[in-house]
Amino acid sequence: MTNERRVLVHPDKSTLAGSVAARFITKVLDLLDVQQTVHVVLTGGSMGGAVLEAVAESPARHSIDWSRIHFWWGDERWVPAGDAERNDVQSRAALLDALELAPEQVHPFPASDSGLTLDEAADAYAAELARHGAAGLGYPIFDITFLGVGPDGHIASLFPHRSGIQVIDRPVIAVRESPKPPPERLSLTRPVLNSSQRIWFVLAGADKASALGLALAGASRDEVPVAGIKGRRRTVFFIDQDAAAEVPEALIAREY
Ligand SMILES: O=C(O)[C@H](O)[C@@H](O)[C@H](O)[C@H](O)COP(=O)(O)O
């Protein structure tokens, strides 16, 4: 198995969502054969939700013992609990509500009406990660980490030319004055994301083509944060044709 980045191109968004959902179900089943618990990091954004909806619609999802899966998020918008802007609310509506999960399996970031300040919320999520931490680490080993990519190359809430992508001394940061609304957010940091066994980027649309092309051509993580993210075993970019416009042809594998 190589740890090279792979780019898998699909004809359109709906084929992309369906294909990633099918791979996710297969991978989770494989993992559950060899380990007791699977930790998954979910993402906000349009394709993150589309993949979860496709999982929900797949009959194959009934073959998974969901009681052995833990769900985390890569970032969260600092808005009240239940707000439709929250990534966890979107993920629950798309899939989690259909799975009858125990509360201990679902690890949302604190909400802005939790009584915590933004900094306290970052610390609280770090403590939650530590409660489930792998030996010697302050966080679990994530088996599959989904990430969307913004048109500026941001991932989670780590934005270009901001300090967040450089932070390596904490697992979680408070983000203020985010270029993408809402301005206040919480985000996992690069070392935590990069400790994931598999990073699965899912992105679609022509507005993502330039950032993706830059990242794969060797731009810096400061310029395009996605360039700084790599899983331990696998890093796959699941993309549509439109997002592939500036990817070097040699890196592309077509899924059709
Ligand atoms: O809170 C958020 O907004 C996200 O977590 C963010 O990192 C998102 O994944 C990308 O911006 C891609 O979003 P789209 O897929 O909607 O373009």
UniProtKB/TrEMBL annotation:
Entry EC no(s): 3.1.1.31
Catalytic reactions of this protein: 6-phospho-D-glucono-1,5-lactone + H2O = 6-phospho-D-gluconate + H(+)
Listed GO biological process terms: carbohydrate metabolic process; pentose-phosphate shunt
Domain annotation Glucosamine/galactosamine-6-phosphate isomerase: ranges: 11-235
Pathway field: Carbohydrate degradation; pentose phosphate pathway; D-ribulose 5-phosphate from D-glucose 6-phosphate (oxidative stage): step 2/3
GO molecular function, one term: 6-phosphogluconolactonase activity
Family: Belongs to the glucosamine/galactosamine-6-phosphate isomerase family. 6-phosphogluconolactonase subfamily.
Protein name: 6-phosphogluconolactonase
Source organism of the structure: Agromyces tardus
Gene: pgl
